[in-house]
Fold:
Amino acid sequence: MNSKLDALIDLLDDPDLTVFERVQEELLKETDEIIPALEQKWESSFDGFCQERIENIIQNLQFKETKRLLKEWLNTKDSKRDLLTGFLIIDRFQYPDLNPDNIRFKLENIRKKIWLELNNSLTLLEKTTILNHFIFNINEFSINFKNIHSPQNSFLNQLLDTKKGNPVSISIFYTIIARMLELPAKFIDFPKNPLVAIVDSELARKVHGEDSKSDVLFYINPSNKGSITSIKEIEYHLRTNNFYPIEHYTEPHSDIELLKLLVQTLELSYQSVNFMDKKERIQSLLELF
Structure:
């Protein structure tokens, strides 16, 4: 910490509002690396007003970092963009001090237990059935129907702790675990709740015929304990309910669109519980997509 920053932090308890506003403006130009010094000032202060000022600055710096990380993730090349990293950035919005290594450790434990039951002689359908058994029967992950609009449903750390989420967070979690097991899982923007598709172009031609235009083998509904559905059933449902174009709801979408759907869901959740300040910040994250 340089002397200029030390001096600025010392001025946070200045009663002159003009002085404070200038100090705040300068501090908000910094990164979240100055947060420990701000926290030290908070601990040494006996002025509740000053502490409130510090808390607001810390929150603004933390959000600024979350926004920077999301922008960086969005600008990463497709081949190097990691869905889990994106999910953890959204977690950071509510839990800026979250340790991502703890989350990765929990996910790895789940992966290992499932991996022990898999072998190369199994088909993708058989592997998916085993994955479903572990996630939805043994670990009992499910939709939080009792409090479906809670913002907590959208965060991975809460999902792992409570085993409850919303259709979007459960689908992202499912996709992450599937990929950790080397299953070719991709996001399907199905109406009301996302689906996960297992994709293999060569196998799809063998199963559906050489004339098939889709690389999707089958669909998984994480919102319904991983129920497996064929493309014919999905297309029938879409036509019956007048969802067009069919291809939009049957073909895979990018991880960016999946994460955007999570952020949109979070925005609606904050609106439903009337957390309008958080809703506004989420809206500024959506503008990055």
Summary: The first strand starts at residue 142 and ends at 143. Strands lie at 142-143, 164-165, 185-188, 195-199, 216-221, 227-229. The chain has two domains: 3-74, 83-286. The chain has a mean pLDDT of 93.
